Amino acid sequence: MINLENIGLIRQGKWILDQINWQVKAGEHWVLLGLNGAGKTALLHMLSAYHFPAQGSIEVLGRKFGKDPLGEELRQEIGLVSQTIKSRFYDSDSAYQIVLSGGFASIGLYETPTDQMRARAQQLLKDLGCFHYANRAYYTLSQGEKQRVMIARALMGQPKLLILDEPTNGLDFLATEKLLDAVERIASRPDAPTILYVTHHVNEILPLFDKILMLKEGKVYRSGNKDELLSEQTLSAFFETDIQLTWQNNRPQIWRK
Ligand SMILES: Nc1ncnc2c1ncn2[C@@H]1O[C@H](COP(=O)(O)OP(=O)(O)OP(=O)(O)O)[C@@H](O)[C@H]1O
């Protein structure tokens, strides 16, 4: 699904991604873990062809950068939920209209939706727990409600890859948990996309995630199986502070010792 070999990305004379090697196979679900400024967003935006690497080779969903058509064609197959990529819709649109518009990635927002698209949008609103406010204007929704609408929208085009870039930013504890419930429901669907979940909160690593990419200062610190990487020793070295790790309902919790 994703194959990065020796990737480097330069911004303003600085390598913000350097020697990144990373392979993602279909059916895997990954967490990208890193502190502020680690390069997580830059990496995700590169996968969606918003950035082009200065070095290395990159292949996403069978498309080789520099060889195959990218841009909108690739983005149609990727559901990207990121606060830094502005979507094309109006705040006065209802949650339902915004989800529905996710089915028109290439041909414009206000084409006539098919009955099948309407049914899919409604089902997604139900799955994401947004159905009861489907007809409310987007701008009247809380941050947590908005995020779940954006995830439903990203799923409209039946993406093979769903990228969630710090989706719990600005959400309170309960809104975070509801969003995580929604992510679990998505992963359990028969047509579930591969999920890349970006966070700096270790306690958001749900049981469904089996792989972790640890990014630090633009480089891969470690990548591989969650069970191997989530240890006090590895996390302490990664965060450069003594970490205590406990597990609650198969979810990790960390504290500074
Ligand atoms: N256009 C740019 N010009 C210069 N530096 C940039 C640019 N874009 C990103 N950077 C720098 O690259 C580094 C990685 O940024 P990035 O946004 O990918 O980090 P992040 O891991 O997503 O961080 P956060 O968790 O804070 O969102 C940061 O030091 C950032 O300042």
UniProtKB/TrEMBL annotation:
It is found in: Cell membrane. It is a peripheral membrane protein. It comes from the Bacteria. SUPFAM superfamilies: P-loop containing nucleoside triphosphate hydrolases (SSF52540). GO terms for molecular function: ATP binding. Keywords: ATP-binding, Nucleotide-binding, Transport. Transmembrane segments: none annotated. Residues 2-242 form the ABC transporter domain. This is ABC transporter ATP-binding protein.
